Every structure is written in structure tokens, then in C-alpha cells.
């Protein structure tokens, strides 16, 4: 009997968070040996992943839009075999726009959630920004000698793109655009008992700190704060939260995409070496924690449920005191406790 050739999946990924979700999707749906799974780690991110430690049914390449032979590599390393599925998390960048434009009709294109975008009700007009974004994407493609025949409008929700056929998310019940008409598949983050161990092996912190053992810890996920005048106010609020929750340890994780050395310097002066800024997904810290709690503004990490790990959202409180934009409104799971005042932590 002739042995069937493995079917091919490609995952175009730009961040460690996206890689974490892709590994969960592969483990639950494409790990039976009948699929070849390729991760395309695009542009500058993905440095927090040890490619050599990926599962046996997963291989990876690094590919940048700025690479001199970008078009040739896309052709020779992504589309050098028939694809059953192509997965992406983003569709608002030149890299993904070009790759999606090259997919053949027999390939199904899927979008995996990127952060909280599937749950983020942005209560502000976006049309000016989308026009600018659309122009920038096509202009950057043009500068690389790439002219696409089909014009794609980058609207309010990228999942409404004509390229995308199926959506993958951890909480379909909280999706903000249920009327979009696209098929939806639920992602189970860390779907098996082996999942966390695999992720622990794949992700590297880069700071020689063991993120696999957190006990009786307050895990504070710092929001993106662009106004330097607010850094001191945030430190004051963290101190208040620590006093109320009375955890033995604290881990303060700053978003990796915003270096802000002055902010980190101020936090380290206030709290010591518990401040980290690396590419390890926050969910992996939570998965490895015992008797701990998570405090965030409205981070996607609040969507990850781990037993005996309470979750608190500061979005209302931080909006009131000016540390979080008022137009941001994320649908959060019901199990997450919303904080309006510091006293709410103990109510």
C-alpha cells in the first residue's frame, strides 16, 4: 500500500506570543504524523525561541522583509511545496500582505488571534489610521519592487480581509465581531499535560532567570505607558497593590516591544531585580506558578485560566487615574475580577 505524503502547514509568525499559540494549535490538531508543520519567524522577533528545541513535527526558518532576496526566499522556502493550510496572526504588515497574496486557491488561510485584538472594542474612529496604514503597506511593497494586482483595503478588523477563511481564538464567546461570517475554531492554550514542558524547553528568557518556578507570587504585567511623566505614578500603584495582596514575591514584567530604559531603571530602583523584560510569554510564567495571582490592565494573559491563580484587571482603575487610555475596552472573561478601587482586591 502506497504511503501517503504528509500534508503541509505553514505558520507565519512575528512574536513569541504567536509562536506559543501556534505550538498549541499544532499539538492539538496537527501532531498525528500526517502533517509537516513549518514556522516562519518573520522579521526581528522570535529571538526568544530556541529553534533546536522545537517538537520533532515542527521546523522553523527565519525570514525578514528586509532580506535582499526576500521574494526568492518566500517562493523557495514557503511555497516550494503544496500547502493545505497557511496560518497568520497579522495582516496589516508588508510581510504578511505579500505572503497572503501568493497563496494558491487550494490552500486555506487561517488567522490566529494576536493579543487581545479579537476582543478589543476600540471606541474611537480608526479610518484615518487605516488609510495611512494601507498606503504605507503598499508603498513599502513598491519600494521592494512588489506591485500587487489586487488592492486590499485594511479596514477596522483585519479578520474581515478576503484572504482569511477561518479564525482561531481562545475565547470565541468574547469575540467582538461574531457577525463577521467566518468559521471559528477554539484554541486550547497548553492543551495537554506535556504542553507546558515543551514550551519551557522552547522559550528562553535571555536573562538567566528561571521562569518555571513561581510560588506565592504577584505577577504584575505592566501596561504600555508612553507618557514618561506617569512612570512614577505606576510605581506608587504597584506598591499599593503589593501591600493589599501581601504576596511573598513579586514579578514585574514589562512589555518587550517598549524598551523604555528609564521606566525599567525606576522600577528596579523601587523593587529590585524582580523586574523583567524579555520575550517569554506571560502565560508561560502563569502556567508555571503555584499559589500566585495575576494583576494586569487588560493583557491577553488574563484570558489564560490556571487553577488557583486569581486574575485581576486594573483597566477601570487605571483609566480613571490616567494610566490607561479611556477609549480602550477589552472584553475580559467573567472570572477576571475588575478593579475600580484598590480596596476591591480584598472584597
- Main β-sheet description: 7 strands, parallel
- Strand arrangement, largest sheet? 3-2-1-4-5-6-7
On the 0 to 100 scale, the average pLDDT is 89
| Tally of DSSP helical segments | 9
| Computed structural class | alpha/beta
Helical fraction:
25-40%
Give the tally of β-strands.
15
Q: How far apart are the first and last residues' alpha carbons, in Å?
A: 66 Å
Low-pLDDT regions: none
Q: What is the succession of H and E elements?
A: EHEEHEHEHEEHEEHEHEHEEEHE
Rg over C-alpha atoms, rounded to the nearest angstrom: 21 Å
The shape is globular
Task: Provide the descriptors you would attach to this structure in a database record.
347 residues; alpha/beta; six-stranded parallel beta sheet
Explain the overall architecture.
Helix content is 27%, strand content 18%. With 347 residues, the chain is an alpha/beta fold. The strands form 3 sheets. Strands 3-2-1-4-5-6-7 form a 7-stranded parallel β-sheet, with helices on both faces. A 6-stranded parallel β-sheet has the order 11-10-9-13-14-15. The radius of gyration is 21 Å and the shape is globular. The mean pLDDT is 89.
Give the topology, please.
Layout: E1 7-13, H1 16-29, E2 35-42, E3 58-63, H2 70-78, E4 85-88, H3 94-101, E5 108-112, H4 127-143, E6 166-169, E7 183-186, H5 195-202, E8 214-215, E9 217-221, H6 231-245, E10 249-253, H7 261-271, E11 275-276, H8 282-287, E12 289-290, E13 293-296, E14 311-313, H9 315-321, E15 337-338
Parallel strand pairs: 1-2, 1-4, 2-3, 4-5, 5-6, 6-7, 8-12, 9-10, 9-13, 10-11, 13-14, 14-15
